[in-house]
Specification:
Radius of gyration: 20 Å
Strand order of the largest sheet: 8-1-2-11-10-9
Helix content: 10-25%
Strand content: 35-45%
Number of strands: 11
Order of helices and strands: HEEEEEHEEEEHEEHH
Largest sheet: 6 strands, mixed
Number of helices: 5
């Protein structure tokens, strides 16, 4: 007859034998994963390492004398975060705010910054055989996007640009929010 300890040990042994890895831990050659989102008409994706957190848009306080793309600052768990309208920074067109709006929290030298996105798609996976030549992805790399879109993938007739939030955070103009 098994003791309660033996039963629990058996449960533990069987559960550990069937633990599925987290998506980031799965080893699949040629597979790349990131956080998918939309800015205007463009579908973009950034690495998990660049996105610290995804949050709902908090209450924003405007900052006098700031660039038009700088929405203001918000208190997130006791820290003041600058909130940037990424679409306005990149395209010059303001994002239409709606309920359920999301921001991506991005680590940058000197403190985190939050960038406003139009729509969140969540985790997306891409295989290297879906890689596009950047010449084929001109709609994704037009204008200012050319500085930040490193490569592109096509999945189900949708083109996705890999957007470097790290490069964005290092851009002098982005770091200088004063008008």
């Amino acid at each position: 007859m098994k003791t309660p300890f033996d039963v629990l040990s058996d449960y533990e042994r069987r559960s550990l034998a069937h633990v599925a890895g987290l998506p980031e831990q799965l080893d699949a050659p040629g597979l790349w994963r990131g956080v998918g989102y939309r800015i205007g008409a463009r579908r973009l994706v950034s690495t998990f390492a660049e996105v610290v957190e995804i949050l709902s848009l908090p209450q924003v306080t405007q900052v006098p004398g700031a660039q038009p793309w700088m929405l203001g600052v918000a208190n997130v768990r006791g820290s003041l975060l600058p909130i940037v309208d990424l679409k306005q920074f990149l395209e010059g067109e303001r994002t239409v705010l709606h309920e359920g709006q999301r921001i991506l929290l991005v680590r940058q030298p000197g403190g985190d910054v939050a960038v406003l996105i139009d729509e969140l798609f969540g985790q997306r996976s891409f295989h290297e055989h879906n890689l596009l030549d950047l010449d084929q992805a001109q709609a994704l790399t037009a204008g200012r996007y050319a500085h930040f879109v490193e490569r592109a993938y096509r999945v189900d007739d949708q083109a996705w640009g890999v957007f470097s939030l790290e490069r964005l955070a290092r851009t002098p103009e982005f770091r200088q929010a004063a008008a």
